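Let us work through a complete example step by step.
Step 1: write down the sequence.
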Amino acid sequence: MTTIRTNRRKYYDVFSHFYDLFINLHSHKNRQETRAFLVDSAGLKQVKQPRVLDVCCGTGSVTLAFAERFRDIFAVGYDFSHGMLRKTREKDVHHNCHLVEGDAATLPFGDDYFDIVCCSHALYELKGDSRKAALIEMKRVIKPDGAVLIMEHEVPKKIIIKMLFNLRVLMMGRTDAKEFVKQRLSPYKKVFTAVILSHTKSGKSKLMICRKE
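Step 2: predict the structure and record it as tokens.
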């Protein structure tokens, strides 16, 4: 692992102690809406024993939301940060989530294994090449009739929140940030056969539903 990658992981290990507080301040009342929208959009009601992979799961809010909705689910939270996975484990009171540490660009799962792969408000953290590699890996591990759900923030309208959003996105690097924010569906259409865009009711988050075939 490179020095930059190691330092980034250490940053997230420390950030894990404050992550949920930060998200609560940022998302406030829309956090529950966002999770519910993502889970509903997965379309798993008729799927027996669904398999779901949450890439860059952070402290596990989405992983746990899936596990709470579907009791017979095989839910995997995947992240490269020890700290984030530790927080997820602490929140998993029913002990029905499987947690795996690793890099989003090299998923340690077989082809066509999951019904749903999701990545919520995290893909923009990855650099250009790593981001594309992660999308290719997500496509590889979903079933032919499955879907990859990518949820990201829309650019906020309120001035202060917009400033914070732009600051965080710029941490990607100016070129990556500009490409990722302005291209909208282009990065996904380069990898997936079909991509559908939808938005949460509040309009603060967008969801890309990406199909393999």
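Step 3: interpret the result. The two ends are 34 Å apart (CA to CA).
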